[in-house]
């Protein structure tokens, strides 16, 4: 499930079809969907899910081994895997067990990770004997996203799932609402405030709109988007920052100011998605263009051709490890720009966006090139080597979402 897209008109499609990049984008779409439906989802359905309990694995090693008993599974994993199975089915994965396992996974998640206040705890061990009950706003956002996804996929449960999501949101508003918009990270409040959980909360709100949630979701989406446009983005550079003081100001210490290229891409995608729903594209498009420009110019290593982790406030490199998820957000941002620019006279900018899609796709496929097809590498060092570690399950959501965006875009030409 993804934020809705408007169909492009025939004149736009006809004009776009002349672009030499589009055939390559269609090929990329086919390769990635084939990989997803033919390799990744079958493997993770077989080895990354416990059919008896409904528990999803945190990681899979190169020999498909689950993490050892007693290891912790973060709360974000289940909603992400539920989304991956549901959206993967929509994209062409034919195994009838996929939706059954998504439903069973949601039941396990609700029974295991939601506390008595309808908020989500941080992690639970594989043997369910150890519980990390810490609050993390990031996990709440993914719980809501998972509930929205399941509410659409399972109509018989829609009312119950939306009601549960409403209870979670109302509790968040009671305990963590910030008077200037968004949410605190803790109660009582403590610094820093963070933009990243709000990004995923915006994503969840848009998904809740699609699921038929009430106006509160639309209102919260608008509040978070406005917060991003007015507080998260530094007007001096156009870069979106990660950490803030308790009044949503940037910290005075430059060492505490961080800019993540992957999040520039992800916010560009989300803000354009939100703006196209609200008829505010003219406001959001220049912001998104600048976010992508910063990420590509300052946050993509020209040698590896991959987006790396973080920049300093002056947009110089800080952490040059390049993780898989950043490449998926680069791909989504390029698609969102290409879609939006197709509705404007700016053909040259759209061609740049199409080229960006292909660069991001090339980077992503590098991570997927592993001996056991259907797994991936996660961390690419500056020296060109990859960290040797199990594949994190949480990456599949990023990959599936990017493939879904790509497939929807490829159908328009």
Give a short summary of the structure.
With 413 residues, the chain is mainly alpha-helical. The protein has helices spanning 10-16, 21-47, 77-90, 97-113, 137-153, 158-176, 196-211, 215-232, 261-278, 281-299, 324-341, 347-368, 395-410, and strands at 49-50, 55-56, 59-60, 72-74, 123-125, 131-132, 193-194, 243-244, 300-301, 306-307, 310-311, 317-319, 322-323, 379-380, 391-392. A hairpin with a 4-residue loop joins strand 1 and strand 2 (55-56).
Report on the architecture of this protein:
There is one protein chain. With 413 residues, the chain is mainly alpha-helical. The protein has a single domain, classed as Glycosyltransferase, CATH 1.50.10. It is built from 13 helices and 15 strands. It has helices at 10-16, 21-47, 77-90, 97-113, 137-153, 158-176, 196-211, 215-232, 261-278, 281-299, 324-341, 347-368, 395-410; strands at 49-50, 55-56, 59-60, 72-74, 123-125, 131-132, 193-194, 243-244, 300-301, 306-307, 310-311, 317-319, 322-323, 379-380, 391-392. The protein has a three-stranded antiparallel sheet, with no helix packed on it. Strands 1-2 form a two-stranded antiparallel sheet. The longest helix is centred in the N-terminal third of the chain and has 27 residues, at 21-47. The radius of gyration is 20 Å and the shape is globular.
Tell me the layout of helices and strands.
Layout: H1 10-16, H2 21-47, E1 49-50, E2 55-56, E3 59-60, E4 72-74, H3 77-90, H4 97-113, E5 123-125, E6 131-132, H5 137-153, H6 158-176, E7 193-194, H7 196-211, H8 215-232, E8 243-244, H9 261-278, H10 281-299, E9 300-301, E10 306-307, E11 310-311, E12 317-319, E13 322-323, H11 324-341, H12 347-368, E14 379-380, E15 391-392, H13 395-410
Antiparallel strand pairs: 1-2, 3-15, 4-5, 5-6, 7-8, 9-10, 11-12, 13-14
């Amino acid at each position: 499930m993804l934020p809705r897209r408007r169909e492009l008109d025939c004149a736009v499609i006809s004009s776009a079809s002349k672009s030499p990049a589009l055939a390559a984008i269609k090929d990329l779409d086919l390769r990635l969907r084939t990989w997803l439906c033919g390799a990744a989802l079958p493997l993770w359905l077989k080895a990354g899910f416990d059919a008896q309990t409904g528990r999803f694995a945190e990681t899979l090693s190169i020999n498909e081994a689950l993490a050892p008993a007693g290891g912790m599974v973060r709360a974000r994993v289940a909603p992400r895997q539920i989304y991956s199975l549901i959206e993967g089915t929509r994209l062409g994965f034919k195994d009838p067990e996929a939706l059954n396992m998504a439903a069973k996974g949601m039941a396990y998640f609700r029974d295991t990770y939601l506390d008595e206040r309808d908020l989500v705890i941080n992690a639970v061990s594989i043997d369910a004997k150890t519980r990390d009950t810490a609050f993390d706003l990031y996990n709440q956002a993914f719980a809501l996203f998972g509930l929205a996804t399941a509410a659409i996929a399972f109509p018989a449960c829609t009312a119950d799932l939306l009601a549960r999501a409403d209870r979670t949101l109302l509790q968040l508003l009671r305990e963590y609402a910030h008077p200037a918009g968004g949410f605190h990270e803790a109660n009582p409040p403590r610094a820093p405030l963070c933009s990243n959980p709000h990004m995923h909360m915006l994503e969840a709100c848009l998904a809740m709109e699609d699921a038929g949630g009430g106006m509160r979701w639309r209102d919260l989406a608008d509040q978070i988007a406005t917060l991003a446009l007015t507080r998260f983005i530094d007007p001096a550079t156009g870069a979106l920052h990660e950490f803030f003081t308790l009044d949503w100001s940037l910290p005075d210490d430059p060492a505490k100011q961080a800019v993540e290229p992957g999040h520039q891409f992800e916010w560009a995608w989300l803000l354009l998605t939100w703006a196209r729903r609200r008829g505010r594209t003219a406001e959001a498009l220049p912001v998104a263009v600048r976010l992508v420009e910063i990420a590509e110019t300052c946050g993509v290593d020209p040698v590896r051709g991959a987006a790396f982790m973080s920049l300093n406030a002056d947009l110089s490199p800080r952490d040059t490890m390049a993780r898989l998820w950043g490449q998926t957000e680069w791909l989504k941002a390029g698609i969102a720009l290409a879609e939006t620019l197709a509705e404007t006279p700016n053909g040259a900018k759209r061609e740049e966006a199409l080229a960006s899609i292909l660069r991001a796709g090339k980077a992503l496929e590098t991570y997927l090139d592993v001996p056991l097809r259907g797994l991936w590498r996660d961390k690419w060092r500056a020296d060109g080597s990859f960290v040797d570690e199990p594949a994190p399950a949480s990456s599949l959501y990023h990959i599936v979402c990017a493939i879904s965006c790509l497939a929807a875009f490829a159908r328009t030409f």
